[in-house]
From TrEMBL:
Enzyme nomenclature, EC number: 1.16.3.2
Name of the featured protein: Ferritin
GO biological process entries: intracellular iron ion homeostasis; iron ion transport
Cellular compartments annotated: Cytoplasm
Binding site for Fe cation: E17, E50, H53, E94, Q127
InterPro entries per record: Ferritin, Ferritin-like, Ferritin-like_diiron, Ferritin-like_SF, Ferritin_DPS_dom, Ferritin_prok
Keyword annotations from UniProtKB, A to Z: Cytoplasm, Iron, Iron storage, Metal-binding, Oxidoreductase
Family: Belongs to the ferritin family. Prokaryotic subfamily.
Organism for this UniProt entry: Pedobacter lusitanus
Ferritin-like diiron domain mapped to chain residues: 1-145
Function: Iron-storage protein.
Cellular component, GO annotation: cytosol
Domain of life: Bacteria
Keyword presence, Chloroplast: no
Lineage: Bacteria, Pseudomonadati, Bacteroidota, Sphingobacteriia, Sphingobacteriales
């Protein structure tokens, strides 16, 4: 049985994951409006991943006898200044999610909740991958600069990204 503190923290994490999905849908839409379908696809896959994370946490809370409480999800930003700006915002957000997961892990130790600690390890690995991927795209965008041909190639590369429902990650 999960204790109230961990239940509350995991419910807050579900809310953060759902906010993340909405933020990524907003970014997807921004790219779609600019006919950058590969970048839009990247964020569509990201949104699906975030919903998968929320569902995984939802299922875990129920599995350990807790109660899921869905809260209001704040409205994400939907206007951005550039492709690079979107990814810089994304990296800052992913770092905030990583910090939140770290706080969950810290709390799980404080509460001697080793089952939740074990459950959260999957998310630690996922966040390392998320931050690395976004950082690599930022590096590519900085190399590209104002080169529209190179931007087109990166757009094409990102169009190949798919969501793998079996693992909850991108393929």
């Amino acid at each position: 049985m999960i204790n109230k503190r961990m239940e509350d923290l995991l419910n807050a994490q579900i809310n953060l994951e759902m906010y993340s999905a909405n933020a990524y849908w907003a970014m997807c839409s921004w790219f779609s409006d600019r006919d950058l379908d590969g970048f839009a696809n990247y964020f569509k896959v990201q949104a699906k991943e975030e919903l998968f994370h929320a569902e995984k946490q939802f299922d875990y809370i129920h599995e350990v006898g807790g109660k899921v409480t869905i809260d209001t999800i704040k409205k994400p930003a939907s206007d951005f200044t550039s492709v690079l700006n979107v990814f810089e915002i994304t990296l800052a957000h992913e770092r905030a999610v990583t910090k939140s997961i770290g706080e969950l892990i810290k709390a799980s130790f404080e509460e001697n909740d080793f089952a939740t600690h074990n459950f959260l390890q999957w998310f630690v690995t996922e966040q390392v991958e998320e931050e690395a991927t976004v950082s690599q795209i930022i590096s590519k965008l900085k190399m590209i600069g104002d080169n529209s041909s190179a931007l087109y190639l990166l757009n094409s590369e990102l169009m190949q990204r798919t969501f793998n429902a079996a693992t909850g990650g991108a393929a």
